[in-house]
Amino acid sequence: MGEGTTMHITIDGNRYEVGGETTVLEVALAHGIPIPTLCHDPYLSNSGACRICLVELEESGQLVTSCNEAVTDGLVVRTDTERVIAARRDMLDLMLSDHYLDCITCEATGACELQDLAYQYDMEDSTFGSPKERRHEKMAANPFIEFDRDKCILCGKCIRVDREVQCSFAIDFAERGFGTTVTASLGEDLGGEHSTCVFCGQCVDACPTAALTFKPSIRRGRDYQLRPVTTVCPYCGVGCQLTLKLDDSTRSVVRVAGARRENSPNPAGQTCVKGRFAHEFISHPDRLTVPLIREGSGFREATWDEALDHVAGKLTEVVAEHGADSVGGLSSARCTNEENYLMQKFMRAVIGTNNVDHCARLCHASTVAGLGSAFGSGAMTNSLDDLAEADAIFVIGSNPTENHPVIGSMIKAAQAAGSKLVVADPRWIELSEIADVAVQQRPGSDVALINGMIHVILRDGLEDQEFLRERTENFDAIRDIVADYTPQRVAEITGISAEDIEAAAHIYGGADRASMYFAMGITQHHTGTDNVLALANLAMLTGNVGRPGTGVNPLRGQNNVQGACDMGALPNVYPGYQPVTDEAARSKFSEAWGTPLPGEPGLTIVEMLKAAGSDIRALYIMGENPFLSDPDQNHVVKALESLDFLVVQDIFLTETAEFADVIFPAASFAEKDGTFTNTERRVQRVQFALPAPGEAKGDGEILSLLARRMGHEIGGYAFEDVLEEVRSLTPSYAGIAPERLHLGLQWPCPSLDHPGTKILHTEGFARGRGRFHPTVHMPAAEAPDEEYDFVLMTGRMLYHYHTGTMTRRSTAINEREPRAYVEINQEDARRLGVTDEGRVEVASRRGTVTTWARVGLTVPPGHLFMPFHYAESPANRLTDTVLDPVAKIPELKVSAVKIRAVQD
Amino acid sequence: MNSNKEITTIIVGTGTCGLAAGARKVHEYFADKIEESSGPYVLKKTGCLGFCTMEPIVDIEIPGWPRLSFGPVTVENAELLWSMISEGAELPREFVLGAHADPEGILELHDVPILWETPFFRNQTRLVLKNSGIIDPESLEEYLESGGYRGLKRALDLSPVEVVDEVKASGLRGRGGAGFPTGLKWQFAHDAPGDEKYVICNADEGDPGAFMDRSILEGDPHAVIEGLAIAAYAIGASKGYVYCRAEYPLAIRRLTDAIEQAKEAGFLGENILDSGFSFELLIKKGAGAFVCGEETALIASIEGKRGMPRPRPPYPAQSGLWGKPTNINNVETVANVPFILADGAEAFRKYGTEESPGTKVFALTGNVKRSGLVEASMGMRLRDIIFDIGGGVQGDKKFKAVQIGGPSGGCLPEELLDTAVDYDSLVAAGAMMGSGGMVVMDEGTCMVDVAKFFLEFTASESCGKCLPCREGVARLRETLNGIVRAHRDESPEESLLRFQGVTMMEELAEVIRDSAACGLGQTAPNPILSTLKYFKDEYDAHVFERRCPAGVCTALLEYYIDPELCTGCGLCVRKCPDDAILGEKRHPHYISDEKCIRCGTCRQFCPFGAIKVR
Fold first, then answer.
1. Which of A15, A583, A894, B401 could join A780 in a cystine, given CB atoms 3.0 to 4.6 angstroms apart?
2. What is the pLDDT of residue A537?
3. Looking at chain A, which residue has its C-alpha nearest residue B479?
């Protein structure tokens, strides 16, 4: 029976209509007919392992497992006969005969599917006798997950979720018969030497008993004692929906369950290790609980009134003395849309300057600039739910399995299902391992690589001429330029073989639907905008825009970096990317806010810091930590020190806050209502889960109170009110009303009856025709020389996030990944006497950092990689502030450094 | 008849079974002799003739004589054969098995029977085994001379649909055990949409004591290649796998060589026989899991995954290897195909019954006089196979049961010996065709012990995926272990569990049969169910009387000394390995039941028959 064929099935005397292929179990579950199952999961392949979903077929009298009984027209099924019940009891009896029944102390009690069935079918114990003593030791050498084999019913859901959703292939069955067990590689514990486990915890979510348990939450409350609140993950831009399980008595998150919601980026409840395990920061004793005012070299506690008055007075004074443009504001990609909206409104309407920016400057400013010019919109063109439809996926300058792990898994699953995969990254990343073509271009040679691919595609006639003709303009401007980028020449520039360049071009250009995913490896260059433009050229050339499984897809790094940009926390645009230089836009906002607004674009982050002490006298930093995140730390320190006045509003006393004159204690994501916009433009509801600690307040509330003290009313801080105001002024958000947030709408959503936009540029481009921009290869700004003979790349790693203020306060995560490191190729290590886990010193023209070496093959010879999460070994002490001329993004990916082994 | 007037050909049966019986040494002996003599001698190999009791078997073709088979040919016997060949010594009549033909009627003179008219062979019908033990399996020429690749040639002249129809018309059913109509299976795979399809030959023969697939692969590898090529052509596959257990190194080697020969001769590879049809055949070695004989587990194993069955539907014909339509047939099934295509469905249907046409190869073993591979026409009675072909029970003991169908089969008692051997009659009787194991048991066999043996096998070979097979079979095994455990070794709790287990055993066995996920699990309780059905009294004796009527379950035995007969000689004390016998010289002795390990040594040595068992 194919799709759309209508069939009828009778279950327990009731007739149901069924369209298309399905199973008896699915029909029953859809209609609320209770059939027990312990191994079925709608997001996983069918296994038929537990056999408890038995039903009786009326015609044949056969007992069959409903999970793999396909519905045929006219099928008559009984789920409630004595025979069925007896058979299910037999199954339970067998299951319990092997089960260590310590329900009284078991973690899963109350949330154990086996226990529920035993209760329902009145099975106090197995008639075969259950084991009264433990037969196996619990395994928990890792900090995250405990495995108790005595509780395992071998339903195999953990293995299937690992294999089919997470794609880590970390666990499987071992042994045979009664001795069958679930095991990690070579019988080691999860996370052992050979383990590929990345501790996403999805196996624990899937486990119907307490065989798998989250180790940090043991003895901290059973499921029914915890209050669930579903909200959005505070880490990367994927924006996974999570269900926090809360203990109100300790104001803490005890554990996290993946939330299964339609219209979300993670419908199967996917999470990564950070979303799952890094929430201890919420109730950490280091949280700021009262306002602090600088006193000498330290701080003293203050009342809100005093602190707010102090800040209001100082800011007013600076504006009066040096003008509004002497104040700068850093908004935050960690805060909600509403808070970002209020921040830019505060800067523009209250202070009177466009000097507002945030860390998107350091990640995707070049994307916004590049895609803005080429397509008319800087956002990810496609949605995660069409990722799997690509025939070919091109990942360049992005390491999704570590930085956007849930997307990384989606790419792996798509590849396993048959999509071709091309990976271009200077490092040999996890995806390189499974790619059809994996290349390691020299840092800073991306334009050459992409132009080379365009050259091959044109040479071999793989371009989409109809698309070029109908949908684009200015193609002729690149034709001559790419003619010079022969595979041989590109090979010389990039260090990739000509064959690989051709192979990559053929896979991307030859696919009907090809998508590309990129991140900081493309954007954080002084040629970042050109890199993005080149990618846009490649996509337009092959007609890979505007259809499912295609697109140019920047992966956004922070939970709400998309939203912060959307809300106009940028020096040149109002919310919805309406230029401040545009008269009509300015007057619209001016009218709405009841105050005249400046018409000149403001300064960007790096420009503000450069101008600190001269043009910039006061800085207001909301939820950012430029001390660690911005390039050239010594320069940042000087900048912060030279300010007349610095206000920092944060949840912790960050390295940046140490320089502040006043620190406001802010609420974390779990302590506020609002919305985050994820990387696929999906606006999602952030739910209030716990009260903020002490006197800490939401960022919006603080801004609102401060504005009032400065004589301005910027509106209430209730998120619904702010969102309504955003809607009224931002056409792309006009349909995203508070009552529609459960729909997970993706902007543009221009009206209240609009379903949101999954794919951009389906008919025309946002700017009309897609525009080709010529791009030429320009070498990185700082080339290695005799003294500084290595190229340093910086970035993130799986376990930690950004400046580590949150993840490094998670005991479990810090146990797993406690210290900073630099990756070095084994050849270089051998030559320099650097040992694995040995102490090394890395120095650039700007500073010196001591850290530990990780020797291996991830980076090619002559290259180093350092994550920038670690305050004690700050990678950004070494990086350079040379900027992309258009997007003003610093070249964080290429610095010339030297490295040597040192004594501990 | 050896038409070559000059040369004498010596053919040594070098199947694994022959090699195990010493054929390698015999082969070496002849090789040395021929080298020394530099006479007109040719030494060849052949596969297994199937007559295990007589291995090693050597055939001789002397000018002017028909081909003669001899067995068992030990090295001493080989010397006699050599003197016959080289010096014209007399025919060593005591180990001549028979002649392959007698066109000139000279045999009577020498009192040599026609091999095919001897008891072991006369009631057999050799279609699948016709080349096995006859031709040199390493020679494509000999396969061609025996009519090989005629089937493929004819198939390529037909359309794929016509080939499928021919196989459907033949009524061939799967020889792996389940008996599904092969033609229908081909049709499903043929009709399934998709450009990429596969054929797989299941050579993961795992039943203890079954070796028909191995013999075919070792003795007639080209028949399997030809059958697979026909199947591939019929369903539209261009790639195939033979999934063969790694424990069959000789079969794998012969098949590997045969594939190379077939490629060179244009029976495999690109554009086969100029038909435009291309077919590549690969061998995948299994790693020893019994369950990988189940088709979905086998597919998982080829894909590099753990061999575990998955739910069907979808059947492999829709979604098999790498998710593509796939046809899987067992070795013996495939080996039937060349004949069907070469001679037509009608010729095939002349053998066997209406519902089960053709023949079936059995591995006849156990307490039977003539054991070996036996190919019988479907519908033959069990009695005829065991008593006529097999010669009846060894040592003329009383027949007790025959176990058919491997570990998942069943034990049939004497009353059912008239059961016809075809798929449906065997199932009706509580056994199954299985892959063709046939174990004959005499009166000294304990049926509880037999059930326990097979259950041990399935319990340790269960893949562990589905609950009834994993846990249920383990519980059944526990119960059987309880039954044969001595009462004195039991705690009161264990006694209680034993009784509970016994009362629930049949029900549990039925639950497993009805609810397990794959064929292995569903049939795992068969040995229990069939022995319970036909030998209930033996269970009762074990459970209620705590005795084993056959005297096999040692833990239930009690050795005691009849004081009337014991002279107190003390021999038993000296022989007892565990100091379990006490007593003073010249006074009746006593066996401590607690210490006795029931080895039976004392009983064996007592000169007065004073030691008895109860």
1. A894
2. 95
3. A128
B188 and B226 in one domain? Answer: yes
Say yes or no: A90 contacts chain B, CB-CB below 8 A.
Answer: yes
Of B311, B470, B497, the CB nearest to A178: B470
Quick: pLDDT tens for A170-194: 999 999 888 999 999 888 888 888 8
CATH number of the structural domain spanning residue B594 = 3.30.70.20
- Would the CB atoms of A173 and B308 count as touching at under 8 Å? yes
Minimum-distance CB partner of B515 among A91, A156, A177: A91
Task: Check whether residue B454 and residue B520 sit in a common domain.
Answer: yes
Q: B38 and B108: one domain?
A: yes
A495 touches chain B (CB under 8 A): no
Q: Is residue B469 part of a domain?
A: yes
Residue-number span of the structural domain to which B577 is assigned:
558-613
3-class SS of residue A213 = strand
Residue B323 belongs to domain with CATH number: 3.40.50.11540
Contact A189, A149 (CB under 8 A): no
Helix axis angle for B75-87 and B23-37, nearest 10°, is: 30
Query: What phi-psi label fits residue B22: left (phi over 0), alpha (psi between -120 and 50 degrees) or beta?
Result: left
Domain with B71 in it: what CATH number?
Answer: 3.40.30.10
The answer to whether B34 and B355 have CB atoms below 8 angstroms apart is: no
Instruction: Answer whether B500 sits within 8 Å of A98, measured CB to CB.
Output: no
Q: Is residue B461 part of a domain?
A: yes
B570 and B602 housed in the same domain: yes
CB contact at 8 A, A504 and A419: no
Nearest chain B residue (CA) to A173: B306
Query: Are A631 and A879 within 8 A, CB to CB?
Result: yes
Domain-embedded: residue B127: no
User: What is the tens place of the pLDDT at every residue in A409-454?
Assistant: 999 999 999 999 999 999 999 999 999 999 999 999 999 999 999 9
Contact list, A178 vs chain B (CB under 8 Å): 459, 462, 464, 470-471, 473-474
Whole-model pTM?
0.90
| Same domain, yes or no: B166 and B227 | yes
- Of the segments A374-378, A405-409, A521-525, B102-106, which one has the largest average pLDDT value? A405-409
Domain with residue B412: its CATH number is 3.10.20.600
For an interface test with B, give the residue of A25, A82, A94, A182 to mutate (most B CBs within 10 A).
Answer: A94
One domain for residues B231 and B333: yes
Domain boundary among B349, B384, B403: B349
Average pLDDT of the segment spanning A197-204: 95
Residues B392, B327 share a domain: no
Mutate to test the interface with B, among A178, A180, A182, A209 (most CBs of B within 10 A): A178
> What is the β-pairing status of strands A839-844 and A848-856?
antiparallel
Helix (H) / strand (E) element for B296: namely helix B295-302
Q: Which of A286-295, A826-835, B109-118, B568-577 has the lowest mean pLDDT?
A: B109-118
Of B470, B474, B516, the CB nearest to A154: B470
Given B349, B370, B397, the domain boundary residue is B349
- Chain B hits for A156, CB-CB cut-off 8 Å, are 465
**B227 lies in the same domain as B338:** yes
Structure tokens at B140: 């494509």
How far is the alpha carbon of B404 from chain A, nearest alpha carbon, in Å? 23
Shortest distance, CA A178 to any CA of chain B (angstroms): 5
Element holding B300 (H helix, E strand): helix B295-302
pLDDT class of B84 with cuts at 50, 70, 90? confident
Q: Do B500 and A128 touch (CB under 8 A)?
A: yes
At A395, the pLDDT band (50, 70, 90 cuts) reads: very high
The number of domains in chain B is: 5
pLDDT number for residue A780:
86
Would B107 be classed as within a structural domain? yes
**Could you give the CA distance from residue A875 to residue A867 in angstroms, rounded to a whole number?**
7
